[in-house]
Design goal:
The chain has a 7-stranded parallel β-sheet, sandwiched between helices. The protein is elongated. It starts with a strand and ends with a strand. It has 13 helices and 16 strands. Strand 9, helix 9 and strand 10 form a beta-alpha-beta unit. By secondary structure, it is of the alpha/beta class. It folds into 3 domains: 115 residues, NAD(P)-binding Rossmann-like Domain (Rossmann fold); 186 residues, Rossmann fold; 82 residues, Alpha-Beta Plaits (2-Layer Sandwich). Bound molecules: nicotinamide-adenine-dinucleotide and 3-phosphoglyceric acid. The site of 3-phosphoglyceric acid has 9 residues, from loops.
């Protein structure tokens, strides 16, 4: 029986992928084999000795201590693209909110009082304050062309916008999916200078933290709309407030409320609802649960943010051995020696590395003894060993 600890509300459709005769799933579990979570912060969580896998039912993993997990030989999985449509729809909504001044116009309408005739008279007299602009022909700048950025860029193109995109690490898959008319930018600054509306779709990393700051805003096109449905830390809120006060920015639409932004004219802050649709929550939970289950039951790895992709169909007549180790010379030799010294034959084997980690899946003809697993666990550079029957 595998034990899966849940943080946050994970969609039942996802949890149903873990058959209860083989998986105990609860938010109360001690000594979990795996964790399923959304945005719960794990940085101060003491990683249990028993933990073998982490499944993020979503895209961003900045709430998870990925390096600490790697050092313990624990793969972290996420759900790439599973909530991209939900975020795209909210970003497009955010562009309309900003272009048509919908939030202040709505607040103004709500503030009207008196008879219908008086309210109508004031509305007609004041509506010029909320004159907006239309999207066709305007330039949208997309920073980060992954699952969400590509969806947003393509949707904006189909609305008649010119689109300029920046992503120095764009994947071949994203490049294939991108509308042909999207123009390539060579820097964040180029996007800031060229676009009427800029939208951010990068992960929060050491490299992207504070990406939009005072200096960047100083080079922004006058009266720009900025959308941030990526992460709070990518944008300096103090600089946003200054940019709005100076007229450099027209509107800041984001998914991350803060004390600095609260009550500021030109700010529309939503409560991190980019992925909060029933469809996205289901898609993410199903993907993360499937990945974690596959890893626990077979050792196979797909959509991990810290481990190599590795899928080996089961072979041989016995146990499967999996070993995570530092990516240094002679580890494979030591793994095969440990198996051979126990008089066992290797039926099939697959080894892949990613950065400082290497992962091996070894199918054995016969039953692995506890001695083989213990010998490997004691080998310098080995981070995790599992025997799957
Ligand atoms: N508001 C929400 O509810 C919500 C929902 C989903 C995702 N997100 C956030 O959005 C981020 C992006 O999601 P995604 O699914 O598109 O991820 P993704 O991994 O598919 O795409 C991220 C893209 O950013 C690019 N990138 C990385 N560093 C960059 C840099 N310095 N400059 C330009 N591009 C850079 C990558 O090459 C990649 O193509 C997530 O990491 C998450 O933080 C928020
Ligand atoms: O990175 C993500 O997928 C989003 O921020 C969604 O987070 P949530 O699962 O907490 O809604």
């Amino acid at each position: 029986m595998y034990k899966v600890l849940t943080f946050n509300n994970i969609s039942a459709r996802g949890l149903d992928r873990l058959p209860r005769e083989r998986f105990e799933v609860s938010s109360e579990i001690q000594q979990p084999d795996a964790v399923l979570l959304r945005s719960a912060k794990l940085h101060d969580w003491s990683i249990p000795e028993t933990l073998k896998a982490v499944g993020r039912a979503g895209a961003g993993v900045n709430n998870i201590p990925v390096d600490a997990m790697s050092q313990r030989g624990i793969p972290v999985f996420n759900a790439p693209g599973a909530n991209a449509n939900a975020v795209k729809e909210l970003v497009i909504a955010g562009m309309f909110l900003a272009a048509r001044n919908i939030c202040p116009a709505w607040a103004f309408a709500e503030s009207l009082s008196g008879s219908d005739e008086q309210m109508n008279k004031t509305a007609e007299a004041e509506k010029k304050r909320f004159t907006g602009f239309e999207l066709p022909g305007r330039t949208l700048g997309v920073i980060g062309l992954g699952a969400i950025g590509v969806n947003v860029a393509n949707a904006a193109s189909s609305l008649g916008m010119k689109v300029i995109g920046y992503d120095p690490k764009i994947t071949v898959r994203s490049a294939w999916n991108l509308e042909a008319g999207v123009r390539r930018a060579h820097s964040v600054d180029e996007v800031m200078a060229a676009a009427d509306i800029v939208t951010l779709h990068v992960p929060e990393t050491d490299e992207t933290r504070g990406m939009i700051n005072g200096a960047r805003l100083a080079g922004a096109r006058e009266g720009q709309v900025l959308l941030n449905f990526a992460r709070a830390g990518i944008v300096d809120d103090e600089a946003i407030v200054k940019g709005l006060q100076q007229g450099r920015l027209r509107t800041y639409v984001c998914d991350f409320p803060s004390a600095t932004l609260k009550g500021q004219d030109g700010v529309v802050a939503l409560p991190h609802i980019g992925a909060s649709t029933a469809e996205a929550q289901e898609n993410c939970a199903i993907m993360a649960a499937d990945e974690v289950r596959d890893f626990l039951e077979t050792g196979n790895i797909s959509n991990s943010v810290n481990f190599p992709e590795l899928i080996l169909p089961r072979n041989g007549s016995g146990d499967r051995l999996t070993v995570v180790n530092a990516n240094v010379p002679n580890m494979l030799g030591q793994i095969s020696s440990a198996v051979a010294d126990a008089g066992l034959n290797i039926a099939d084997m697959y080894n892949k590395s990613r950065g400082e980690l290497a992962y091996s899946v070894v199918d054995i003809d016969g039953k692995l003894t506890a001695e083989v697993a213990d010998r490997l666990r004691d080998t310098e550079g080995v981070l995790a060993v599992r025997v799957i029957e």
